[in-house]
Design a protein that fits this description.
- By secondary structure, the chain is mainly alpha-helical.
- It folds into two domains: 178 residues, no CATH class; 297 residues, no CATH class.
- It is built from 18 helices and no strands.
- Helix 12 runs antiparallel to helix 13.
- The longest helix has 32 residues.
- The protein is globular and about 70 Å long.
């Protein structure tokens, strides 16, 4: 079951929301238990065999969290190490063991057989989410935690498939709200609106970009214009697909009265690579910074170690996305970009001046080009495919014009580019005054427009939803679900 399916929109979600508020009138605990059941059903609908892995992970991590909290005064770091090791072993076994076997075979020339392993969907997300809880418990940020609240936090169906990576302080206090969960018209209005906008991003933009532009990169050796237009389409498609899912997760959560943080904030308007990572997959970049980069020492031990920590963080961040060397190279490129950026900044750290409009525009273009080049490796199934696209981008495969695209393909590419580069994002439209649901990340757009529950917005949301429903039979899978 996926968010962009008729069964989810017209059956699962109405039943879960209705049951939640009906039970909330009797007891908050019954309402929480209902959401746990719904989350497990949602996750099990992908494959019932996933459930045993998820339930085992939740149960063991909850016990580990209690174990750490009970001994937090003694600061026995080995307890945290053992708990994290369990999660990493679980993740590595299901996601990376065949990758390691293939790598060993390539290096040694052996022919070790691959294991027939079922990869649980969303394992990267629920593993990192629970590791964050363990670390926070060790740091004394969690004094007590209820089993039901932890179960819901770790299995919460809006995030379980493709994020965001949630923090305990962002959601657990909302589960424990003593005044109870009551229906609020504002939550329903804004939740439905954000969900429909996310659905539109997915079905009307991302999927159309994929279906109309995919032939550009289907060739073994794409030519210059094919490679650049194809990568531009993929770059925009990935953003609208993933940010659309995140919007839908925020909208669904709002229907229950819960606020989860934004995960995107116009990343292609960034003026540097570090700015990009403050806007793209914000929950992952915050996790990598707080639990990996800072733990390695951050920038506290000099520039050389700072560069080492940046590279290690981004390499591991790349590997987190998938069991393929292309993801490692993608992460390494971003690590290199960050090192170059900080090195350049350190050379001119004593210069303080307001950047001109031309320099800001140049920074945006340069950052976007660097990000798009890195996406070549992220998209590719192997190194040969990535190098073929890069060869096309530098003109090694020829520079012939494109003849097999119609005006609709160029139209959707132009519309998506205008939306991504110049229009206000979903956060600005719906959450600009909702500080509890957003993080302080700067943004830029050519105009400002705030949502309000009025007839004009109602008609616009209804129209988008109607078009989405008519397009739902052509929907494609979420790109990021595989990572």
């Amino acid at each position: 079951m996926v968010f962009h399916s008729l069964s989810f929109i017209f059956i699962f979600l109405p039943i879960v929301v209705s049951g939640f508020y009906f039970l909330a009138r009797k007891s908050n605990q019954w309402a929480i238990a209902w959401l746990i059941l719904a989350s497990l059903c949602f996750y099990g609908s992908w494959d019932y065999r996933y459930l045993s892995i998820l339930v085992s992970s939740i149960s063991i991590n909850y016990l580990a969290c209690r174990w750490i909290i009970a001994n937090v005064q003694s600061q026995q770091s080995w307890r945290l190490a053992v708990s994290i090791a369990f999660n990493l072993i679980l993740l590595c076994f299901f996601k990376y063991v065949n990758f390691f076997i293939v790598s060993i075979n390539d290096v040694s020339g052996n022919d070790l057989p691959l294991l027939n392993i079922l990869l649980p969907i969303g394992i990267s997300f629920f593993t990192f989410t629970q590791i964050a809880v363990l670390v926070d418990a060790y740091r004394g940020k969690i004094q007590a935690i209820k089993f039901t609240h932890y179960c819901l936090f770790a299995s919460y169906f809006p995030y379980i498939v493709a994020g965001p990576i949630l923090r305990h302080q962002e959601l657990l206090p909302q589960f424990a709200e003593t005044k109870g969960h009551r229906i609020k018209a504002e939550d329903f209005a804004i939740g439905i609106s954000i969900f429909v906008f996310g659905l539109g991003k997915k079905l009307l933009i991302a999927d159309n970009l994929g279906s109309t532009m995919w032939p550009l990169l289907a060739a073994d050796n794409p030519k210059f214009f094919q490679a650049w237009l194809g990568m531009l389409a993929y770059t925009l498609r990935l953003y609208f697909d993933f940010s659309g899912y995140s919007d839908m997760a925020i909208g669904v959560s709002r229907l229950f009265g819960f606020k989860i943080p934004i995960n995107f904030n116009s990343p292609y308007k960034a003026t540097s690579v570090s700015d990009f990572w403050q806007r793209w997959h914000i929950s992952l970049s915050q996790f990598l910074k707080d639990y990996l980069y800072i733990s390695l020492g951050g920038n506290r031990r000099g520039q050389l170690l700072r560069y080492r920590n940046l590279m290690l963080t981004m390499l591991l961040g790349g590997l987190w996305h998938g069991a393929n060397w292309t993801f490692v190279i993608w992460g390494g490129l971003h690590g290199l970009y960050l090192c170059v950026q900080h090195g350049w900044k350190s050379l001119g750290k004593n210069r303080e001046h307001k950047p001109s409009a031309i320099s800001v525009a140049a920074s945006r273009i340069l950052t976007f080009m660097a990000v798009m080049v890195a996406w070549v490796f992220f998209r590719a199934s192997d190194m040969a495919s990535a190098l073929a696209v890069l060869a096309g981008m530098v003109g090694s495969n020829g520079i012939s014009m494109i003849a097999d695209l119609d005006w609709q393909a160029y139209g959707i590419l132009l519309v998506s580019a205008v939306i991504a580069f110049w229009l206000p994002n979903t956060n600005k439209l719906f959450l600009s005054g909702d500080n509890s649901g957003t993080r302080n990340v700067p943004s830029f757009s050519i105009f400002r427009a705030d949502w309000s529950p009025n007839l004009r917005w109602g008609l616009a949301i209804g129209l988008i939803f109607a078009v989405c429903v008519l397009s739902i039979d052509k929907a494609k899978d979420f790109i990021y679900a595989q990572f």
